[in-house]
Amino acid sequence: MCGIVGAVSTRNIVPLLVQGLQRLEYRGYDSCGVAVHAAEAAGAVPGTRLKRLRGIARVADLGAQAESQGLAGSTGIAHTRWATHGAPAIGNAHPHFSRGPVPAGMDGEQAAARPARVTLVHNGIIENHEALRAELLARGYFFTSQTDTEVIVHLIDSLYDGDLLAAVQAAVKRLRGSYSIAVLHRDEPQRLVGAREGSPLVLGIGADGKENFLASDAMALAGVTDQIVYLEEGDTVDVQLGKHWVVARDGQAVQRPVRTVQAMSGAAELGPYRHYMQKEIFEQPRAIADTLEGVEAVVPELFEAARNHAPGEGAHATFRATDQVLILACGTSYYAGCVAKYWLEAIAQLPCAVEIASEYRYRESVPNPRTLVVTITQSGETADTLAALRHAQSLGMQHTLTVCNVATSAMVRECKLAYVTRAGIEIGVASTKAFTTQLAGLFLLTLALAQARGLLTEAQEAEHLKAMRQLPNALQAVLALEPQVITWAEQFAAKENALFLGRGLHYPVAQEGALKLKEITYIHAEAYAAGELKHGPLALVTSAMPVVTVAPNDALLEKLKSNMQEVRARGGVLYVLADADTHIDSGDGLHVIRLPGHYGALSAIVHVVPLQLLAYHTAVARGTDVDKPRNLAKSVTVE
Ligand code: F6R
């Protein structure tokens, strides 16, 4: 959610900042901007000055403008925004400027024409921005945006006394909320200062020993440097040519480890695909195979102890002590948790509650210290999920495990145990391969818990693992159904509403299918547990209502068929995803796509794939921006 890139170099870094922004654009794309210490024009007073360019078009457009206007400089910051406070508009786009307090008698136009003294980019939300704004207004600062961010730049300006690091350190002490920031001051042309609290920021160390960088995600620096320092909560960082230092919250200089991060630039290329979402849907067989790689037996040690925890706090002891599971997640990851609940209760015989993280963190609940708290998150940076984890910990629940796709994320650092899925970077805002790999990880977790509780015979374990190893091939075969799904999508493209039905663990699959459709096609889609139909939603069913039904050949199929009859009797048109051995055939008002196999307990992982394809091709037919749906962004790092 929003992206930051910054650099101190000896070469012109504008193209590099723009390239970094392009890599982060999926994090927020309603406006973007860049600011640099630009050389003065010939004949002007020697020195440097802050220059910026902002736009509400895409980053590529910003890059073209920077080139045509000759914007250049060797120290700079850049940002791509997902609006929280203030509409997507140029005036609200980052970088923001502070030109100092307005002297008495100067009008607004003159005030805005003064050179900038400080410029800043920010990810996160400042909760006390109103109080700070009032204070800064009283001190003569002139605000030009509706953002919460602008208070930070003026605050830093007001505290500046010749040392940008000291000003930033003093300013962040006054902030409440979450932030990662990168700041430049007019009088310190080769210095970039950053700080973070509740929002990620990394330092990149240049290969030449001189250049140094800041970014909200190491991916922005792919191909530039692979030497990355992950800043910790409360850190500020001083970035200069050939040197940098990190200062912890207590004001002491600290050494944070430098890690070599595999270049991910290739992963961010589209290849033969039209959209990242399509690429990621088709990567699922590989992503599942990688996620399962090395799983020869379901040992609790698969769930590695995350960093900083003493030995002995291993998975086996935790799993044996567990008498309940609490899953915390948001969005698609929450639906993965809802599927896992069925597995955990049936196979591991553990009571399981699945909670929407943003609800759980604020409600009163009854803690049980023998609970295994499981967070599910693709990014590992989702603010609500992190806050829900911390809330559970504050209630005395210390057995924590995450199923997460980013090994270096805050979530992996903060949980005692982690199962890191290997989906690879997911760029499409609509999550696809992250979901199926989460499900694979959650199924393994179920088996590991069942094994630790003595509920799994060797034969049962071998049978489950055999089925898991067949998943990549099963997914490949389902992807081959794409042409049939496209014929459905052509019909859906003209619709404005759709219903999704499922029963048992296919109810959350139906929910995930509806979420995919609504977020990228803007078709209003709702999912119901099919048995709920007659308790209300049946009133919506007419011949104009497509009803997607997930109908594998499981114990609930006959019940589901009755629900389908209820729809047909009201003229609703059914689109049914069946297994190879499900006895339902296409007919009047009834369209059936038959999946090639029968997938048993793992059916949820397979049946979601045609739903992803349906949403994708419907979006393509409607001409929406598939990878960057309106109002959304990847990685929701604000509350
Ligand atoms: C929907 C989607 C979101 C995320 C949610 C949680 O396609 O991607 O609903 O699942 O924002 O994100 P993570 O998994 O990163 O915590």
Automatic annotation (TrEMBL):
EC numbers: 2.6.1.16
One MF term in the entry's GO annotations: carbohydrate derivative binding
Active site, UniProt feature: C2 (nucleophile), K634 (for fru-6p isomerization activity)
One GO CC term, this protein: cytosol
Catalytic activity: D-fructose 6-phosphate + L-glutamine = D-glucosamine 6-phosphate + L-glutamate
UniProt keyword annotation of Acetylation present: no
Limits of the SIS domain: 315-455, 488-629
Localization of this protein: Cytoplasm
Chain coiled-coil ranges: none
A Pfam family this chain is assigned to: SIS
Entry keyword Cytoplasm: yes
Entry keywords, A to Z: Aminotransferase, Cytoplasm, Glutamine amidotransferase, Repeat, Transferase
Residues in Glutamine amidotransferase type-2 domain copies: 2-242
A Gene Ontology BP annotation from the UniProt entry: protein N-linked glycosylation
Family annotation (InterPro entries): GATase_2_dom, GFAT, GFAT_N, GlmS/AgaS_SIS, GlmS/FrlB_SIS, Ntn_hydrolases_N, SIS_dom, SIS_dom_sf
Function: Catalyzes the first step in hexosamine metabolism, converting fructose-6P into glucosamine-6P using glutamine as a nitrogen source.
Assembly mode: Homodimer.
Protein name, UniProt field: Glutamine--fructose-6-phosphate aminotransferase [isomerizing]
